[in-house]
Amino acid sequence: MPVLHWVKSSSAAKNFQSSSSPNPTGTVINKLENTKGFLKVEQVEKLVESEMKQREETIKQQLKAAKEKAKSGDKEGAIPLYRSVLDEKCLFPAKAKDAAKELKKLE
Q1: pTM higher than 0.85 for the full model?
Q2: At 105, which helix (H) or strand (E)?
Q3: 3-state secondary structure (DSSP) of residue 54
Q4: Is residue 61 within 8 Å of residue 34, measured between CB atoms?
Q5: 102: Cβ contacts below 8 Å, ≥ 6 apart
Q6: Mean pLDDT, to the nearest integer, of 13-39?
């Protein structure tokens, strides 16, 4: 909560926005506007929760597609998909572990 405390006590709170970025490029995908100099915790939690659900669904789809490609013999198509899942290991360690195991089989 130190960030929210800083926002409450900062004179910059008027212009403060919370944003979420999906990758290292820093692409902004969502913004929350402050209300009277404050960000509502519920709004931030909802934003983070919906983003995490969306990312998890994307990871599941990538794993499924990679497994299908590997099963059909398309090794070149499966490897990049497994690597993209592996890149998300901080957020989804179990799925990344599965992807790493499958990558070892293909490489």
Answers
A1: no
A2: helix 93-106
A3: helix
A4: no
A5: 66, 67, 70, 78, 82
A6: 65
